[in-house]
Structures are given as C-alpha cells and as structure tokens.
From TrEMBL:
Keywords: Cell membrane, Chaperone, Membrane, Protein transport, Transmembrane, Transmembrane helix, Transport. It comes from Salinibacterium amurskyense. GO terms for cellular component: plasma membrane. Belongs to the OXA1/ALB3/YidC family. Type 1 subfamily. One of its GO terms (biological process) is protein insertion into membrane. The keyword Thylakoid does not apply. Residues 315-325 have a biased composition (Basic residues). This is Membrane protein insertase YidC. InterPro entries: YidC/ALB3/OXA1/COX18, YidC/Oxa/ALB_C, YidC_ALB_C. Signal peptide: none annotated. Interacts with the Sec translocase complex via SecD. Specifically interacts with transmembrane segments of nascent integral membrane proteins during membrane integration.
C-alpha cells in the first residue's frame, strides 16, 4: 500500500476540516474581489486556517502554561532526586530514580512533555494540509474529501505565488525553479528566527533562578540550537503551502509568548520583576495604595495644590492682631 495513501485515509476527518476552512476563506476572499486561482488568494486562505486552528488551541496553550509553572515549582524536588542518585548507575538505582520522578510529576499534576502538546496537536494539521496539496496537484481536477470540489482542487493544486512559485513544490521537487528555492530559503530563515526569538525570550526572561539551575534548562538550551536543523529539513522537503502554515503559526506563537511573558510571567523570573516595576510606577502615578512585604502598607498620595493666601490690608491685619490679644 502507498504510504501517502495510508496516511491520507488515516487523516480523512482532519483533511475534511482543513478543506472546509480553506474553502470558506477562499470564498470570502473571492467575494471581495480577489482572483480565485491566484496563489496569493490560497496563501491567505492558509493564513485563515492558521488563525482558526491556533484560536481553537488557546485552551490547550493555557493548560500548557499551568503545567510549565508546576514543572518550575517541582524543579528543586527534581534536583534533590537527581542528587540522591548521582553517580549510581546500577539498574536498581535507575529504576528507583525513575519511580520517584514519575511519582513527583503525578503528585504535581504535570509531566515533562506538556510543553510539546500544542505542537503535537498541530502535526496532523501539517500532514493533512500536505496530503490535500499533494492530492490536488497529483490528481489534477479530482475533488477532495470534503468541500474542495474538482474545480477548487485544480485551482489549489496549480496555484502559484505571483505566478512564479507553485505552492505544491518544495526545494526537493523544485527541479531548478529558482523562485521556489529562494522563497523556501527566505521562509526557513524567518521560521528559524521567529522560533529562536520565542525560545530565547522564554529562557532569558521567564525562568526562575531554580529553573535555570535545573537539567531541564540545559536541555532547553540544546533544543534552542537544534531547532534550526529541523526547519532546514522541513524547508527542503515540505511544499511552500505547508511552510506558509508553519511560518504564520510561528509568528502567532512568538506574539502569544510575548503577551504571556509580559502579563503573566513566571514568579521569580526577570519578567516578573520587570512587571512589578511597571505596576509600581503606574500605581505611583495614579496614587494607589500599595502593600510591600517589608514596610507594610504605604499610601501614595497625589501632591495637593496649596491654597493661595489672600492679601490682607494693614488695617485688617492690625484688627486681627488686636482680637488675638
């Protein structure tokens, strides 16, 4: 059995949803006057697919943040377990260390793979979109599994960005098409840069001192430099249509992480200290009561304009002095 056909059948429900979203955005864009067969129209439809998918994954992202916070809370306990079995390489010690670690994760209600959940949930979308593109290009005017009829399938499968870079081609299948190669290289650079910035802002600004001392932090640093290799591989093998999905998704992640780190930073991190400083400065301008752990309650009052004293004549001044006596 053809491997692509096998995965195509396996991803049938996902492909149906992908086609429905693509066709919906395609119809909206053509309604507003865009060319139905233009590559840009289909690229914007893919952008719409990203927005829908990432918006649907926001609850998963919230759960991911909570799980990451719990991971940071148990970082000191994890270090104690690792120190306890440090230097012990026998099978009994390794199994005991594994049991204690898993029990600690279970009690904390988290696991080390929670941060990968949004990406794992998106992988079927990647492969589903890849399958939709491949079928539309290989089978010509054959309809998709859902709302992508024969006419739309042919339009999608033969569309090109600015009429020079077919969306179904990758570097590996470009056959000397310079436009496809240059477009793919630019997208790989943007994908790598956005992912690097996203990961770097997490590691440099949103990690507590305990987390930076843990082995997990060292693993994150390794991943920071390994991810560009992943994007290089994807840029060589994935068609431009799928890469557009990945690129826009990376930009969404970068913006989403920026907002989270700014507004909901990890306690004890550099971002948390910066947020406290911003709030203190804002409260000082507004004259709001603040509570500090060292000095108790401090009332910050806005400066009051002193009332101007009215000038008094000499006769009235003498009369006032006489009354006081």
């Amino acid at each position: 059995m053809d491997l692509f056909a096998f995965f195509g059948n396996l991803l049938w429900p996902i492909k149906w949803v992908i086609e429905a979203i693509l066709v919906a955005f395609h119809e909206i864009l053509t309604f507003f006057g865009m060319d139905a067969d233009a590559g840009l129209t289909w690229v914007l439809s893919i952008v719409g697919l990203v927005l829908v998918v990432r918006a649907a994954l926001i609850p998963v992202f919230v759960r991911q943040i909570k799980s990451q916070r719990r991971m940071m809370e148990v970082a000191p306990q994890l270090k104690k377990i690792q120190d306890k079995y440090k230097g012990k390489k026998d099978q009994f010690s390794r199994e005991a260390m594994s049991r204690e670690t898993m029990a600690m994760y279970k009690n904390a209600g988290t696991n080390p793979f929670s941060s990968c959940l949004p990406l794992l949930l998106q992988m079927p979308i990647f492969f589903g979109l890849f399958s939709v593109l491949r079928n539309a290009q290989l089978e010509g005017n054959a309809p998709g599994v859902g709302l992508l009829n024969a006419e739309l399938s042919e339009s999608f499968g033969t569309s090109s960005l600015f009429d020079i870079a077919p969306l179904h081609l990758a570097i590996s299948t470009a056959e000397g098409n310079v436009a496809v190669i240059i477009t793919a290289v630019i997208m790989v650079i943007l994908m790598t840069g956005s992912q690097f910035i996203t990961q770097l802002q997490i590691m440099s600004k949103n990690q507590s001192a305990e987390m930076k001392a843990s082995p997990m932090y060292r693993q994150q640093r390794i991943m920071l430099y390994l991810l560009p290799l992943v994007f290089a591989f994807s840029g060589f093998t994935f068609p431009l249509g799928v890469m557009f999905y990945w690129l826009v998704s990376n930009f969404w992640t970068m913006g989403q992480q920026f907002l989270v780190i700014r507004n909901m930073p990890t306690p004890g991190s550099e971002a948390a200290l910066a947020r406290e400083a911003r709030l203190a400065k804002r409260n000082q301008r507004k004259g709001i009561v603040e509570e500090t752990p060292d000095a108790g309650t401090i009332v910050i009052e806005e400066p009051k304009n002193p009332q101007r004293e009215q000038p008094v004549s000499k006769n009235r001044a003498k009369k006032k002095q006489g009354k006081k006596k």
